[in-house]
Amino acid sequence: MRYRFHVFVCENTRPPDAPRGSCGAKGSAQVRQALKDELLRRGLHDGVRANSAGCLDACAHGPVLVVYPEGVWYGRVRPEDVPEIVASHLERGVPVERLRIKGM
Amino acid sequence: MRYRFHVFVCENTRPPDAPRGSCGAKGSAQVRQALKDELLRRGLHDGVRANSAGCLDACAHGPVLVVYPEGVWYGRVRPEDVPEIVASHLERGVPVERLRIKGM
Questions:
Q1: pTM score, two decimals?
Q2: How many A/B residue pairs have CB atoms within 8 Å?
Q3: How far is it, in rounded angstroms, from Cα A52 to Cα A12?
Q4: How far does the CA of residue A101 sit from the closest CA of chain B (Å)?
Q5: B92 to chain A, minimum CA–CA distance in Å?
Q6: pLDDT, tens digit, for every residue of B49-67?
Q7: ipTM score here?
Q8: Integer Cα distance of A87 and B21 in angstroms
Q9: Sign of dihedral through CA atoms B67, B72, B73, B74?
Q10: Is B53 close to A51, i.e. CB distance below 8 A?
Q11: What is the pLDDT at residue B91?
């Protein structure tokens, strides 16, 4: 496996008044930047990639990200949630249950 | 697992003369469209998602895509390679060895 964890952050952006909403309009670019910063700060950036992605089709839960290879989905992620995701899931392998999208 | 296979096609685009090259400049949008068309044609579109992604950091091998949860990387993918990837890997679970990026 090339990366221990490959994280995809939805950066699809629709206009602010679009009925479906979008992760981009809810601040997903800031979430990805926080993720990149935290990975670098903890020296995890070689084994974990914080990738941008187009629409992950979970718009109601945005900002959304998915962690592979496990396929763990997180929703309504704010930049201030990122240190916990990195420290727990991406460093110790323990998903952050409170942020997981139910049923995914 | 939400998707049986979650495919990420790099659609990062740099100018045609950029030294690193880019998947977008090598036709990755057409690859993703061919993938979406073929999944629909074979009725696999509910279980397999053909996602766009930002730079997957394998620029020299573009157009590149990665299939999760296995983490199988394909390079130099042309639209005409897509039916084989779908029929073999995404329908029967057998990766297409000739298209895999060596060492990834």
A1: 0.97
A2: 52
A3: 9
A4: 11
A5: 19
A6: 999 999 999 999 999 999 9
A7: 0.96
A8: 34
A9: negative
A10: yes
A11: 98
